Amino acid sequence: MTEPSRKLPDFKQSIKLKYVKLGYHYLITHEMYLFLLPVFVLIAAQLSTFSIQDLHDLWDQLRYSLISVILCSTLLVFLSILYFLTRPPSTSSPAHARFISWTSPATSSMMHANAPDRSSWSDPTARGHEPN
Known about the structure:
Layout: H1 11-14, H2 17-29, H3 31-48, H4 52-64, H5 66-86, H6 94-102, H7 105-118
């Protein structure tokens, strides 16, 4: 008896491409958290094994090496600033949506048309209104 050959399922038909793109977007958006999570878990595991005496000894060693503490702190601040400056801006905020709606061509021409009416610098006779 011959066994019928088994074919792999057609993933292109069973999984919608938009969900693959959405998952990839979530992965890329949160990559920093995914990379730092194991590091934080390892640090927490190491800190949980410390006793009070170990922490006291560590404090004494760091107190006498002020230069290394300053360098590490400076490096941490620099890397944090670098991370926040290289992130793409969030386009899902309500303020961004309002800004985009205000910068549409129709809104822009409406704003330019209404600007003299709203400003106190305009001449009321130029718009056909008589002065009070």
